[in-house]
Amino acid sequence: MSLEILLLIGIVAGAIGYRVANGKGRDGLVWGMLCFFIPILVLLLLILGPGSGVPPGYRRCPHCAEPIHKAANVCRHCRGEVTPVQQSTGHATRPCPHCGADMDNDARVCTSCGKSVSF
């Protein structure tokens, strides 16, 4: 087989491995590199193997270890109370003093209730 064909197979297998790994909650870069160098064996292991167990946007309950939403206050499996994990939106927020909705720190008007807010 020519070098160009082997390189093309490696690139395609690496891209597929990357996407499958990310979909299963695994490290896409590592699995993509492995699929590039050993395409058939690693792709079979990745596709047939189990996922990481915790989908994106979820975390494990500290009481029963079942997957729960990051923003959950109570585990739906064991009913244990958990502290919600704040998901970063990329900018700082604060609650509106009138309605309690999240708003940007530098906002002067709440987008939820429309009332003027002072610093």
TrEMBL record:
Per the UniProt record, one Pfam family is DZR
In Swiss-Prot or TrEMBL terms, this protein is called Conserved domain protein
Q: Boundaries of each DZANK-type domain copy?
A: 61-114
Keywords of the record: Membrane, Transmembrane, Transmembrane helix
Q: Where, by residue number, does the polypeptide cross the bilayer?
A: 31-50
* Origin organism lineage: Bacteria, Pseudomonadati, Thermodesulfobacteriota, Desulfovibrionia, Desulfovibrionales
Which InterPro entries does the annotation name?
Answer: DZR
